Amino acid sequence: MALPEQMKNMSLPVIGSPLFIVSNPDLVIAQCKAGVVGSFPALNARPAEVLDQWLTRIDTELAAYKAANPQAEVAPYAVNQIIHPSNDRLAHDMDVCAKHKVPVIITSLSAPTQIVPKVHDWGGVVFHDVINVRHAKKAIDAGVDGLILVCAGAGGHAGTQSPFALVQEVRKFWSGPIALSGAISTGRAVLSARALGADYAYVGTRFIATVEANADQRYKEMIVDSGAEDIFYTPYFTGVHGNYLTKSITGSGLDPHNLPERGKDSMSFGSGQIKAWRDVWGAGQGVGTIEDISPAGEVIARMRREYNEAKAALCG
Fold first, then answer.
1. E strands of 170-260, at which residues?
2. Which pTM does this prediction carry?
3. Among 73, 91, 69, which Cα is nearest to 82's?
């Protein structure tokens, strides 16, 4: 299967992953202008009416930038939709995405059986998050255009399988686009994902430590100051296994190795004073390669240099 036409005008095969709370129009626009797919969760736009405003701004600013820079490689943007009964905004948010003909929809949790036809109707494509072969096959049956393999070491909700295992197993039955997630923070890692059989690298944590990201400055600095050993994997905070910065757990007054009991379906704890994502921060094992907080465009330019240098070195 060929790569989607919508995703061919890119300077680097990278999709910026949608980061809860953190991703905003500033970050998405900067990513797209630099030639990688920028994305955000629809639920970041609050209240629901703000989603239309965000998409109008992104469409307008990217169109103006393309007109002023006709030779520039301006990547498309993506919106992440959570397919779960708890997301009572899904129908509304999909209608807004249809209005703007969002080029890429990234779906999470349930297979997007009802979503795919709607996106195809307006000419968009759908990529779906999966952590194992079973989920991948369900997504393919739903008609998705691409798979996002969320492997061990990825930030936030992540799987446990090695990319060396999952990519190669999925490639036995899927020839379509694959984006690979898991500790990818440098251009060399992007090239490694390509060599492994993925078409794109799915990069999240690296973009938290950027000027544009809507993240607490302490969060950004903690990423810079952390290494892989500072990442803690647990289902405690949301009920789904995920990777978090250990320092943010201890900073919230909790012992990661002796966590108190909490409500099964609650996303807050400590009498509701501490909340997942707001107070306890997600990050992937690639934090050890992140050494500064820079504008997203500079981060991408650096990754592009690293990618090209590594490619040239391998090709002799």
1. 178-181, 200-203, 231-234, 242-245
2. 0.94
3. 91
